[in-house]
Design goal:
Layout: H1 3-32, H2 37-52, H3 61-82, H4 90-121
């Protein structure tokens, strides 16, 4: 996988994470904070977008979600810090680092798998 493909994958993962967390947050506001139903409906639309984003990757769903999971963990820590105003502690930071190491390992396999899928369909 080249640099451009890696950056593209990272952008998809970040977009998916923002959709998952943001959509869930909108539903949370609707149900837990008594916001208008429009929050819930907007959250539902954003969550559907989250479900569609992984289809943009040529690899198998399980592997894509496994790699995405680490990005989600880090984004959740950042969301908690910036939106909920809960500063990450050393356990959050260590867990986030371990998750990113997992992303790097799985992404190496995704890159090899993606190349194999491309060559088998040519």
């Amino acid at each position: 996988m080249g640099i451009a493909e890696a950056v593209k994958s990272l952008c998809y993962f970040i977009l998916a994470g923002l959709c998952e967390i943001g959509g869930g947050y909108l539903v949370w506001l609707w149900l837990r904070e008594a916001k208008p139903i429009g929050y819930g409906l907007a959250g539902a639309v954003v969550l559907v977008l989250y479900g569609a984003i992984p289809t943009l990757k040529p690899a198998h769903l399980g592997r894509v979600y496994a790699a995405y999971g680490g990005i989600f963990i880090v984004l959740s820590i950042l969301w908690g810090w910036k939106v909920d105003r809960i500063a990450p502690d050393r356990f959050d930071l260590t867990g986030g680092l371990v998750a990113l190491i997992g992303v790097a390992i799985i992404s190496t396999g995704l890159a090899a798998n993606t190349e194999a899928i491309r060559h088998s369909t040519l």
